[in-house]
Design brief:
With about 475 residues, this protein is of the alpha/beta class. The protein has 3 domains: about 260 residues, P-loop containing nucleotide triphosphate hydrolases (Rossmann fold); about 140 residues, Distorted Sandwich (Coagulation Factor XIII, Chain A, domain 1), CATH 2.70.50.60; about 35 residues, no CATH class. Helices cover about 25% and strands about 30% of the residues. The chain contains 11 helices and 22 strands. Helix 3 crosses helix 4 and helix 4 crosses helix 5.
Length: about 475
Amino acid sequence: MSSTYHAPPKPVNMPGMWVIRAEKVSKCFRIYRKPSDRLKELLTFGKRRFHEPFWAVKDVDLEVERGRCLGIIGENGSGKSTLLRMIAGVNRPTSGTIAVNGRISALLELGAGFNPQFTGRENIFINASILGFSDAQTRRRIPDIERFAEIGEFIDRPVKTYSSGMFVRLAFAVAIHMEPDVLIIDEALSVGDVFFQQRCMRRIQQIKRAGVTIVFVSHDVDAVRNLAESTIWMEHGRVALEGKTDEVVAKYLSAMVNRGRKDLMMEEAIGNALPISANLELTDEARSRIPKFISHVSNIDHRHGNGKALVRGIGVFSREGYPATAIVQGDRICVRISVDFLEECSKPNVGFIVRNRLGEDVTGTNATFEGLQLPPVRAGDRISVDFVLDLPLLQQGFYYFSPAVADGMLDQYDICDWIDNACAVEIMQKTTTYGYMRVPTKVSAFAVTGENSHFEIEQISSNPDETKKQLGLTSRLSH
């Protein structure tokens, strides 16, 4: 069997031309039952086989054009990482051909490509030299790498002293600042902190728009949906399905549900429709626990405005008035935003936007939009604004609150201060959610087949245990 790997030093960036192409790529590993079997096989000069062949990847074909993103999904052990390592040139295929038309930056498993004995700075130079950069070119990039990684003095400490989060910060910063034509990412971002993950996703979107080709492996199908135009689903080393991302992901998730997960999803789904209360209030006791003026901002990704007013703090609190960093779907929360006015504002307005981990706007509101017109304020005034809401049944994960204060009406206003991703809250799953959220829904049915038809509907109990007894036994539609 023959294999080849080609990586031309000068990429051809013609629109619509492929940048990555794999044809009938396979990778076989030899599995020995015990270490001595390897020696026995060597001593017989291959005449006797003491190993079992394991095909991690078998007959994979793919093609990715410039500026496109290919997603790869599949369960653990399906061959995703092995395929990426072959595309990156780390492993050679046992058979088939892989051609890559451009410079590759690869973010593979934690630790790949970095020498733990060297400092972060030394590893930057090593990685850059492998990619063909001179020391002078690398020095010009180091300030940008340091700013993005935000690991401070650890840049000059051995990598072996890094936490996993610090390592992935540096590794990602290096990968994106080496002007890659192809960026390969294999689950590495899952170990970073939530704010850094969102910043990485935004940067990936930016470099994709700049024409960089991306191959993205992740168990986070929402991230794959957000980034990839096309996706392949790998199973047992082969491509089970390829095509448009939404279609492939939908069939993949359906298959996962059918593999022993039905009972779990049914238990989660039964009896969890939560009514939305029209009386959005907190008790006096709960309000007494919330600081009147919040003077702390947990995080600032970006800040802009004319400076006439400043957001001093934002807090998310439970219905009991306690600080909330993790909330169950559908729970009531209070978002308190505290503002200092440095100049007079005739029509002040305070609000916030909520984004998911991919940086997409999920929801948002402001005082004026909700019917509360704040009175004019003078320089030196301080106010706090409360937003009490019942959370929608959002998909599980981290959500980021971006507070703002403005002067003007909804159709014409000036931003005084806006803070991107000032705080994060984790939404815990209570009910199965398809898409971004589950909408509380009432379902009913009626007969339309004639007055002589018999149509019987039995209500499924709101008790999960009772419902499981009823399912398939008493729910029926008969004529």
